[in-house]
Amino acid sequence: MIIEQIYTGCLAQGAYYIESNGEAAIIDPLREVSPYMERARKNNAKIKYVLETHFHADFVSGHIDLAKESGAEIVYGPNAKPDFDFYRAKDGEVLQLGEAKIKVLHTPGHTMESTCFLISDEQGKEIALFSGDTLFIGDVGRPDLAQKLVSELTSEMLAGYLFDSLRNKIMPLSDDIMVYPPHGAGSACGKNMSKETTDLLGNQKKTNYALRADMSKDEFIKEVTDGLLPPPSYFLKTS
Q: Is 232's pLDDT higher than 50?
């Protein structure tokens, strides 16, 4: 099984190439799709899925072009309503990729369609979490962006959803799972992101301020909404 992070420093953005037994999935691709196509061709693999963790505000995604060129299916989690062909996966649904499995974890909070993808290897062991803007290294996704687009949502409401997603979907997972977030230090999608771009989930449970075991929901809401800088103006246009 292959897991490769394709990191673009100027955007502090990480896309991912996953491959098992001749089938590949791309997570959160950038606009230029040739690197993903070339990576698959090099390994004689077919791109089966383009997995989107959420609608992106900080970069233009290449999901539509990549799906057209590769024949792959675009996958979002629950609540997604784009105006193009896609597959809306259910919470807990398992997608087969070669001999690996991809479990869909709906984790609303950063946005309402936010979804993480949990990968199990050929032996069935859960090994990797592609955490979207739900969980970063050292931080969690800011909860004030979706409320700019959906008037009935508030930052506090979204932070509450994020608390539940982290406590109910992410923190119960095994400590030895590797976390692969889409952003690192320099991104405006969080406020305290590490320069590291991967980490063990167990270490994040120990060191990430937002994953403190003794933190109440009210404390979490206060901490994740405090000190947020205004988002760049173009963030209101998602892709």
A: yes
